Amino acid sequence: MLAERENLPRLLDALYGQTVRNFTLYCCVNNREGWNDDGDDGHRSSYLDNQASLEYLHSYQMLHPDLQLVIFDHSTVGKGWQGKQHGVGWARKVIFDAIASKASDNEVIVSLDADTAFGSTYLESVLEAFNGHPEHSALCLPYYHPLSGNDIDDRAMLRYEVYMRHYLISLWGSGNPYAFTALGSAMAFPLWAYKKVGGITPLQGGEDFYLMQKFAKTGKILLHCRETVRPQGRASLRVPFGTGPAIAKGIDSMDDTYPLYPAEGFRAIADTYALFPRLYNEDVETPMSDFLRQQLKTDDLWQPLRKNFKTRELFVHACTERVDGLRILQFLKSFQLRPAEEELLLLCNKHYISTPSGFSFRKSTIMEINSVRDAIFKLECGLRKRVLY
Predict the structure, then answer these.
(1) What pLDDT is attached to residue 260?
(2) Where are the beta strands (DSSP E) in the chain?
(3) C-alpha to C-alpha distances, 239 to 50, 87, 314, nearest whole angstrom
(4) How many CB atoms lie within 10 A of CB 87?
(5) How far is it, in rounded angstroms, from Cα 261 to Cα 246?
């Protein structure tokens, strides 16, 4: 956590009030070394906030000795991040690897951010999900960003959240294994699965996506849980992309950075995946073939996979590993875009969701945009319950 002193009381009280009591809470308070005397006022302020967080964590531990709390101090002078080892990716890695070194393989890691809200049965619902589906490698929980009351921030947050939900629902149409939304504050996985994929890659941003992609390639991702995680929708530049930077850049940057990709792009992905079994026996053109030849710099896309994977099932799995979540996103970026409102209307009409007349992310009221977000959220939750890859 970085500069989260304000959020700590709510977070710790929510965890202390869980119906599941037998768990250990790991916290990593972190910043770069030297921020205590950095000339940047923001760095200095974050360092001081982190010191207050450490003090609060230790005092909470003394007041609640029955809460098993492990504190990693990567903030205090001499303990801060140095070199390339810094940021949210490293914080998660430090915690996850520490757990992996001492916990049993069947224990579950639940990843949280300090600004996350949830109900008292949150941990219980995560365990319930894995107990019902023990073969699954990970869980991407439902999420919902509450409105903040700031019109500018809420407009950008709602636009970004609609982008994520549109992407997920559209990709689900093909039963795609990479149809998940990876949020560091809304994911969980058993330790055996974490070890199987070789742990997390400590990136400065997107570490949650790449970890979930590893799980998708080696197993199955569970998408439904009866609890919904509620992270704050706030502006932040701590990471290069995601909710915080999207809100910080504002609504005017959304069409370029977070477009609603066209329906024909998702259909092309679905049609390509449907051809994987046939490709085991013969070369046929797929809607993604030209793109893949360019990306992979080869004209022989499938024969090397046939040589290495001797059954249709293994071959198809190898194809899905090659055309993975990152490759899918790159492919969608190659399409000509329509206005976001037009693309959203296509999705809403397909699923019988009404939109206000003249709907516009820039001009419609926050309540009008929020009503569309809520309708798409309801649709997504229904799909999450039905989809088990």
Answers:
(1) 96
(2) 24-30, 68-74, 108-111, 116-117, 138-140, 187-190, 221-222, 230-231
(3) 18, 8, 37
(4) 22
(5) 17
